[in-house]
Amino acid sequence: MLSRARVILKDTTHPGNIGATARAMKTMGLGRLYLAAPRTLIDSQSRALSAGALDILANAVICDNVSEALVDCTHVFAYTARRRDLAPPLIDAQAAGQKAAMALNAGGEVALLFGGERSGLNNDDARLASFIVQIPANPEYSSMNLSQATQIAVYELRKFLLSSHPPANTGLPNMPTQKQLAALAEHAQTVLAKINMPKRGDGRLFLSRLLRIIKRAQPESSEVRLLRGLLKAVENAVKNKE
Known about the structure:
This protein is 47% helix and 13% strand. The chain is α/β, with parallel strands linked by helices. The protein contains ten helices and seven strands. The protein has helices at 15-27, 44-49, 54-58, 66-69, 93-105, 123-126, 146-161, 178-194, 203-217, 221-241; strands spanning 5-10, 32-36, 61-63, 75-79, 90-92, 110-114, 131-134. Helix 1 packs parallel to helix 7 and helix 5 packs across helix 7. The radius of gyration is 19 Å and the shape is elongated. It has a seven-stranded parallel β-sheet with strand order 3-2-1-6-4-7-5. The N and C termini lie far apart (52 Å).
């Protein structure tokens, strides 16, 4: 099941952190590393700090942005120390490990997403997640090395997968991918513009709130298709009145 889990690093600036993250992943049985818009390349320092996890570095996938790295994922856990407005639900690292294990048991594709060393994840990237995850560190000194945070995240995931009483298969087996959700968002934005919604205020804020409601509901793929059908019906009704 761990073959369907990936770690995504965004805006990584230090090559050593890439190698140390690969090492943290390999100790827990994960092998898929994605680098979204990295600010440094894998080099000799990366390989040295990987402590033998050279296969993970050799197969790392380089993406232009987070959306590209998430395109076929069904469950996304964004690890960040900052609270956000209009963000996905907030959980701790242990709950994230359990939910991620449930998603894998249900056949989903899971992503553990981490921001860069300097500023972490921006709000737009964080809103792509299913859940925002915080590690309960010392509030007076919560700064944690990237590979350390990754180690905690992948440990919690492995712990629940290897439990003698693994999480029940209660995850949704037909969860939509991030690509499907993005298509829904784009469709909703088009339809909202045609019916002049929202009447007042920031249209982007309105759409962010709408999508937050959808993600919180965790619809199945069939339900996303139902919503797309509803939007299409609204489009047709508007067109017939023109």
